[in-house]
Design brief:
Blueprint: H1 2-8, H2 11-36, H3 40-61, H4 66-90, H5 95-119, H6 123-126, H7 130-133, H8 141-160, H9 162-170, H10 172-177, H11 182-200, H12 209-223, H13 227-251, H14 257-275, H15 281-310, E1 318-319, H16 320-327, H17 333-341, E2 345-350, E3 353-360, H18 362-372, H19 377-383
Antiparallel strand pairs: 1-3, 2-3
Helix pairs in contact: 2-8, 2-11, 2-12, 2-13, 3-4, 3-5, 3-11, 3-12, 4-5, 4-11, 8-11, 12-13, 12-14, 13-14, 15-17, 15-18
């Protein structure tokens, strides 16, 4: 606790911590809609498209003015989104192809401009490369007000247009048929994503920003089935990842904040993919194992019931070889042990034979009858 208190006593650490948490919350909230709209690459395309805007903002301002740089990034990001939408609507190319084209072309233009600017010399131009991977220590307290303002604006828009965003995210064609301005709503969502990217450039950078948009939403998607809880949980995961990454980076000198934040968010995704109820891989593996066990149990029970019916003896002791012949495989020892433990079958002796024999108990007859849909003679005995 004392080490944490020492970290938080630093004004720079507190500023980076708050900035990372705000950025994570904004990115998580808006990323949920991008994931549901199957536009996970949209954030990647817009973040890479921001690079030429960063360079143009520097060229126009003539210095490393953060306001000009972020405005340039927003303009080129919005332009990239417009180009992507035009390609999808005016050509036969699908969204993924349009995103790939926009990402590669705009990023290539940005790299060329960055190389040209750095070739002109000057100490200010040298810092432009930090926008590729982020430089959290450069965040100022005044930047927190900008982040907070953008976050509140995005939250207000999401609340005001919740029904419309929800319908567009799940069924855009139905929304269009109902008369909703789908193109306008998608444009608003895209502009909001572009704003979140612009805000995160200084912390996470162009290359890694998409991970902070998508990872919290991907993790939240594993834990919930409805949009409201998913958006809230995604924002919480994003904020927690940002705050944790900032603290770890501050405690371990030399670790860049942006990559640490992304690694933490990715770790949460991995945990969610493995352990989330019903959707987690481990949960599904256990469910499949239980299903196979139920099938195996049912086969043994119904086979014993069939043998008993064939011999007109409810307590007919089935020999191991006979059971294996009926099942077409070796008697599954684990299944038999489980059925014995549940009290559905019981081992019996059948002199002079020494091989294992089993017979159904009263509960086993009822269970087998329920599985096969046949009448159980043991149930009659219980009612007489």
């Amino acid at each position: 606790m004392s080490a944490l208190a020492d970290l938080l006593s630093s004004g720079i650490v507190r500023t980076v911590l708050m900035g990372a948490a705000i950025l994570g919350a904004i990115s998580g909230m808006l990323g949920a809609f991008a994931v549901l709209r199957r536009q996970s690459l949209l954030g990647d395309a817009l973040s890479h498209a921001a690079l030429p805007g960063i360079c143009l903002g520097f060229i126009i301002a003539g210095t490393r003015d953060l306001g000009s740089i972020l405005m340039g990034a927003f303009v080129t990001g919005a332009l990239a989104a417009l180009v992507m939408m035009l390609i999808v609507r005016r050509t036969t190319l699908k969204t993924d192809a349009a995103l790939g084209i926009v990402l590669s072309v705009f990023f290539a233009v940005g790299v060329v401009l960055l190389s040209w600017v750095q070739g002109q010399g000057g100490a200010a131009s040298a810092g432009l490369a930090s926008f590729l991977f982020g430089q959290a220590a450069a965040i100022l307290r005044s930047d927190l007000w900008i982040m907070g303002g953008i976050g509140l604006t995005a939250l207000a828009l999401v609340l005001a247009l919740w029904k419309e965003f929800k319908l567009v995210s799940f069924d855009a064609d139905f929304a269009r048929a109902q008369g909703f301005p789908v193109t306008g709503l998608e444009a608003v969502l895209t502009v909001m994503v572009a704003l979140a990217i612009v805000v995160g450039l200084q912390l996470v950078g162009v290359v890694l920003m998409v991970a902070l948009l998508i990872a919290p939403a991907a993790a939240a998607r594993q834990w919930t089935r409805t949009l409201g809880p998913m958006v809230v949980l995604s924002a919480v995961i994003g904020a927690a990842s940002g705050a944790a990454g900032a603290l770890i980076s501050a405690a371990s000198r030399g670790l860049a904040t942006g990559p640490v934040v992304v690694l933490i968010a990715t770790g949460i995704v991995i945990v969610s993919l493995l352990f989330a109820p019903q959707r987690g891989l481990i949960w599904q593996a256990l469910a499949k194992r239980r299903a196979r066990a139920r099938i195996s149990d049912g086969r043994v029970l119904t086979t014993l019931q069939g043998l008993a019916a064939a011999h007109s003896d409810a307590n007919y002791p089935a020999e191991q070889g006979m059971l294996e012949a009926a099942l077409g495989t070796r008697a599954p020892s684990a299944t038999i042990a489980a059925l014995e433990q549940r009290g559905l079958i019981q081992p019996v002796t059948h002199p002079p034979e020494t091989t294992p024999h089993w017979e159904l108990t009263a509960a086993g007859h009822i269970e087998a009858a329920a599985l096969s849909g046949k009448h159980s003679p043991k149930s009659d005995e219980g009612t007489q």
